[in-house]
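A reminder from the course coordinator: this example appears on the midterm review sheet, so study it carefully.

Given structure:
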């Protein structure tokens, strides 16, 4: 399936993601007192099935922090942690994984990262962005993503803006995804000078 976005538009969206994820990495670094690196963001404009496959093995059990975004843009911010990353993230903030306290800590980490990302996006674009309280889900990656993407988007194509965070010398490399609904992407592009 051909992308509904041009390469220029995808480049602009990557730059938006780069600013947001760099801000989120700085917030995480302050929280845990350790350096955090961020990968170069990747922008995927894919059909629903391909978007789910691109995120990783569908049967992989992950913990996902989900922040619904509302306001001028409807979107999802997702923090995806594989088991080792989940355990390390919890240990770095002094709690045990797979406990109520651990899930609460992950929700707060996701909230801090998501709010930092969206704050940078709002500053860049002037869009009003609000988050709902984070939800923590542990399940197969494919099942969680399929239900979220179907609820958030349309059947034609899903835009995933993905970055990986890496905590220095730790087995903690969560994936960070920003998933705007298709109808909102034009608003983001217009605000950064690329009318669609």
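Designed residues:
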């Amino acid at each position: 399936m051909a992308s509904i976005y041009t390469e220029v538009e995808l480049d602009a969206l990557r730059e938006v993601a780069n600013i947001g994820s760099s801000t989120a990495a700085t917030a995480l670094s302050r929280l845990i007192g350790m350096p955090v690196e961020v990968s170069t963001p990747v922008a995927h404009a894919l059909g629903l099935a391909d978007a789910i496959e691109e995120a990783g093995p569908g049967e992989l059990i992950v913990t996902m922090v989900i922040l619904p975004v509302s306001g001028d843009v409807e979107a999802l911010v997702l923090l995806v942690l594989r088991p080792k990353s989940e355990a390390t993230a919890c240990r770095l903030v002094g709690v045990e994984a797979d406990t109520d306290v651990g899930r609460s800590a992950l929700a707060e980490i996701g909230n801090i990262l998501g709010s930092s990302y969206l704050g940078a996006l709002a500053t860049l674009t002037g869009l009003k962005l609000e988050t709902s309280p984070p939800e923590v889900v542990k399940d197969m990656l494919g099942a969680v993503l399929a239900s979220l993407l179907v609820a958030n988007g349309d059947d034609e194509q899903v835009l995933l803006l993905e970055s990986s965070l890496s905590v220095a010398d730790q087995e903690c490399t969560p994936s960070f995804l920003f998933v705007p609904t298709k109808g909102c992407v034009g608003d983001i592009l217009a605000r950064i000078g690329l009318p669609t």
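The chain has a mean pLDDT of 88. The helical segments are 7-32, 48-55, 83-92, 100-125, 141-152, 182-191.
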